[in-house]
């Protein structure tokens, strides 16, 4: 059975899941930020997934990117699968706004996170993908 990396568990809250992925939200109040984590142990890279799972992961990320754009009115949606600090494959979906505290640079390693203990209001308006367990 797959498990969520302890750092992802600590830094994110549960949003939902699909057959393939856990859907999470980042506990940083500076940005509307989602995380998609395939439920597969030992994967570090997207290309390590079988082709069919790669397509399903892409569909999930695209769906959530469109939803995040819809509910936040973001100027730009940033996507990333860095994994330099957390070796478990996960994809960041981040709403960005011209003039946010990291604009136009990346969010990673910039500024000071603003921890959230409860889910932000915008999260309730996200429609989850149809591919659900």
How many individual helices? 2
CATH topology: HIT family, subunit A
Overall 3D form? globular
What is the average of the pLDDT values? 95
Helix share of residues? 10-25%
Multimeric organization: single chain
Widest sheet, order of strands: 1-2-3-5-4
Structure at a glance:
This protein has 2 helices and 5 strands.
Task: Give a written overview of the molecule.
InterPro entries: HIT-like (IPR011146), HIT-like_sf (IPR036265), HIT_Hint (IPR026026). With 133 residues, this protein is of the alpha+beta class. It has a single domain, classed as HIT family, subunit A (2-Layer Sandwich). It has helices spanning 6-11, 51-72, and strands at 12-17, 21-26, 33-38, 76-80, 91-96. Strands 1-2-3-5-4 form a 5-stranded antiparallel β-sheet. β2 and β3 form a beta hairpin. The protein is globular. The mean pLDDT is 95.
List the helices and strands and how they pair.
Layout: H1 6-11, E1 12-17, E2 21-26, E3 33-38, H2 51-72, E4 76-80, E5 91-96
Antiparallel strand pairs: 1-2, 2-3, 3-5, 4-5
Q: Keywords for this structure?
A:
single chain, 133 residues, alpha+beta, HIT family, subunit A, five-stranded antiparallel beta sheet, globular, catalytic activity, HIT_Hint, HIT family protein, HIT-like_sf
């Amino acid at each position: 059975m797959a498990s969520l990396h302890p750092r992802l568990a600590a830094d994110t809250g549960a949003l939902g899941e699909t057959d393939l992925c856990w859907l999470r939200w980042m506990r940083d109040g500076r940005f509307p930020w989602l995380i998609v984590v395939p439920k597969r142990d030992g994967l570090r890279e997207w290309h390590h997934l079988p082709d069919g799972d790669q397509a399903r992961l892409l569909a999930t990320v695209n769906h959530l990117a469109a939803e995040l754009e819809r509910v936040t009115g973001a100027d730009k949606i940033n996507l990333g699968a860095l994994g330099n600090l957390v070796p478990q494959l996960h994809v960041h979906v981040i709403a960005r706004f011209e003039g946010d505290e990291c604009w136009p640079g990346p969010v990673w390693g910039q500024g000071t996170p603003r921890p959230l203990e409860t889910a932000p209001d915008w999260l309730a308006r996200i429609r989850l993908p149809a591919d659900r367990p």
